[in-house]
Amino acid sequence: MAKDPKTTGEHIIALYGYITGLKREVSSIKNNHLKHMHQDIDKIHGKVDRLLYWLLGGLGMLLLSLFTIFYK
Description:
This protein has 72 residues and is mainly α. It has one helix spanning 8-70.
């Protein structure tokens, strides 16, 4: 465990170190986790688009089939 700062100067140095550590962690989250999350969302977006196109195509074929059956 870290030693408790006794003087004001030691408190300021400890705070600067803490802030630097937080900046490093935020940078790590921005650069790594958000980039991977963006890539995963893009993959899911492609799969949802493909599913939507299949559903729309199936619906179109169903409507075309019903149209040809009832209006022969």
